[in-house]
């Protein structure tokens, strides 16, 4: 998790760049609604490792009441464990409304299927009844409204909006500038690429694999890395597909998400032994890239994911840049 590791010195000092005043009340778009902030949050709660990482990267740890939804599904990297040391995990999976009220939360950063469920007990509306504003992860808006394919602009917009919400615009701007610069550096090398290899993302599942369609962040990551998401015709973010569709599309590279109860090695061994996949190019050549859950969901680790994918898809263009 290099992205967060690079920012840990800033987190230790609490401030890397000065905060600036936002004009409150501040009204922002969040999915299909508008949300108003009367003041900068002082007891924020984030859900999931990717959104928690965003707040930490912006130097907001001292303004967090806690986080939710990490230990129930995921393990922490040493860098994230260090950054979260002493900050309470309020719920190992999805939080209840009571949990957020007991924590005296004054802001909830989550998403649809990232801490909130359509029709569930914790939603922006249910929180608003108690004066708790919520900001929804932009990528997750596809669960409640029509959405174009996933874009890195969604990530950048969320980070900049968080900067406005917490009045840390210089920090947010610097972080987005750094991420954009790294992605642009990859694009410059890819200008010489002559093909876009097909990529299949494998999250989990044996009878039917869970992958990502064009509405999930992997769509944007694979495209920025000079590849093609072979499930880009599926109008969904995270969804189940059939093994027959994987065989038909014959990926040249498989991304394994290091997430869930099975290790990435177990997932790789399962794929290598799957009878139906034996003629798939990525299986025959054993071409895999392993990425963390955080890296394939909207997060400050997305630029690193693009760098790693691009290097694997176009090694001749990136050999000289490898460490």
TrEMBL record:
<dbReference type="InterPro" id="IPR002491">
    <property type="entry name" value="ABC_transptr_periplasmic_BD"/>
</dbReference>
<keyword id="KW-0732">Signal</keyword>
<dbReference type="InterPro" id="IPR050902">
    <property type="entry name" value="ABC_Transporter_SBP"/>
</dbReference>
<dbReference type="Pfam" id="PF01497">
    <property type="entry name" value="Peripla_BP_2"/>
</dbReference>
<feature type="signal peptide">
    <location>
        <begin position="1"/>
        <end position="21"/>
    </location>
</feature>
<protein>
    <submittedName>
        <fullName>Iron ABC transporter substrate-binding protein</fullName>
    </submittedName>
</protein>
<feature type="domain" description="Fe/B12 periplasmic-binding">
    <location>
        <begin position="43"/>
        <end position="321"/>
    </location>
</feature>
């Amino acid at each position: 998790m290099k992205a967060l590791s690079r920012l840990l010195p800033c987190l230790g000092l609490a401030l890397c760049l000065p905060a600036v005043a936002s004009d409150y009340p501040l009204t922002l778009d969040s999915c299909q609604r508008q949300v108003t902030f009367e003041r900068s949050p002082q007891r924020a709660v984030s859900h999931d490792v990717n959104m928690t990482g965003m707040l930490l990267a912006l130097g907001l740890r001292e303004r967090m009441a806690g986080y939710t939804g990490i230990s129930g599904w995921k393990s922490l990297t040493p860098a994230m464990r260090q950054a979260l040391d002493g900050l309470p995990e309020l719920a190992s999976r999805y939080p209840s409304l009571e949990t957020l009220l007991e924590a005296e939360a004054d802001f909830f950063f989550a998403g649809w299927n990232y801490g909130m469920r359509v029709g569930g007990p914790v939603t922006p509306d249910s929180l608003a009844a108690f004066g708790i504003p919520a900001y929804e992860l932009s990528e997750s808006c596809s669960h409640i409204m029509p959405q174009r394919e996933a874009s890195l602009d969604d990530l950048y917009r969320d980070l900049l909006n968080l900067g406005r919400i917490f009045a840390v615009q210089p920090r947010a701007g610097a972080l987005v500038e750094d991420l954009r610069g790294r992605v642009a550096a990859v694009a410059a090398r890819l200008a010489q690429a002559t093909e876009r290899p097909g990529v299949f993302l494998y999250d989990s599942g044996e009878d039917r694999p869970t992958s990502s369609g064009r509405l999930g962040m992997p769509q944007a990551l694979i495209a920025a890395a000079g590849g093609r998401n072979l499930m880009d015709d599926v109008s969904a973010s995270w969804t189940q597909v059939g093994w027959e569709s994987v065989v038909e599309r014959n990926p040249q590279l498989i991304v394994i998400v290091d997430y869930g109860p099975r290790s990435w090695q177990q997932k790789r061994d399962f794929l290598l032994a799957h009878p139906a996949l034996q003629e798939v190019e990525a299986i025959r050549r054993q071409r895999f890239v392993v990425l963390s859950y955080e890296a394939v969901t909207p997060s400050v680790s997305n630029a690193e994911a693009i760098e790693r994918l691009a290097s694997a898809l176009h090694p001749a263009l990136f050999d000289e840049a490898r460490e």
